[in-house]
Amino acid sequence: MAEEAKKEAVKAAPKRKKKAKLTLKRGQAHIQATYNNTIITITDQNGNAVAASSAGACGFKGPKKSTPYAAGIIVRTLMDRLKESGLQQVDVFVKGVGSGREGAVRALHANGLEVISIKDLTPIPHNGCRAPKPRRV
């Protein structure tokens, strides 16, 4: 009798619900372009992340990660993931000073997205850290 109860417990595993298909017409593209890497995240209008990719995730290593070519490949892999979502328009938010920032925006446009606005969110220090003391030679 105890064996029958164990068998029923194994069979009664909860069924998982299918993930609802996401449909987006307009979203946001957040580009973080540092000297060492380029990270692009696609979000909905509320800022909830839908898909993200980086140069390291696309197989680039070392100094190639921050190139404009790598940014184009990142956008291409993101668009492959977002095919079913129907994304057409994006507002672009760029942060950082890396060389992939302009390449990523160009790649978004080249992959069929309408770029509505571009906003630079690069942090700028307002007389930030204390400067190092001068060298005595």
How would you characterize this protein structure?
- With 137 residues, this protein is α/β, with parallel strands linked by helices.
- The protein has a domain at 26-120: 2-Layer Sandwich (Nucleotidyltransferase, domain 5), CATH 3.30.420.
- 26% of the residues lie in helices and 25% in strands.
- The chain contains three helices and five strands; from the N terminus they run H-E-E-E-H-E-H-E.
- A five-stranded mixed sheet has the order 3-2-1-4-5, with helices on one face.
- Helix 2 runs parallel beside helix 3.
Indicate the low-confidence ranges by residue numbers: none
Strand content: 15-25%
Q: What helical percentage do the residues reach?
A: 25-40%
CATH architectural grouping of the domain at 26-120: 2-Layer Sandwich
Number of strands: 5
Oligomer: single chain
Largest sheet, if any?
A: 5 strands, mixed
- Radius of gyration from the alpha-carbon trace, in angstroms: 22 Å
Strand order of the largest sheet: 3-2-1-4-5
Which sequence of SSEs, written as H and E, runs from N to C? HEEEHEHE
Mean pLDDT: 89
Tell me, briefly, the overall form.
Answer: extended
The CATH homology group name of the domain at 26-120: Ribosomal protein S11/S14
Q: What's the helix count?
A: 3
| Structural classification | alpha/beta
Distance between the termini: 89 Å
Q: Using the coordinates above, name the CATH class of the domain at 26-120.
A: Alpha Beta
CATH topology of the domain at 26-120: Nucleotidyltransferase, domain 5
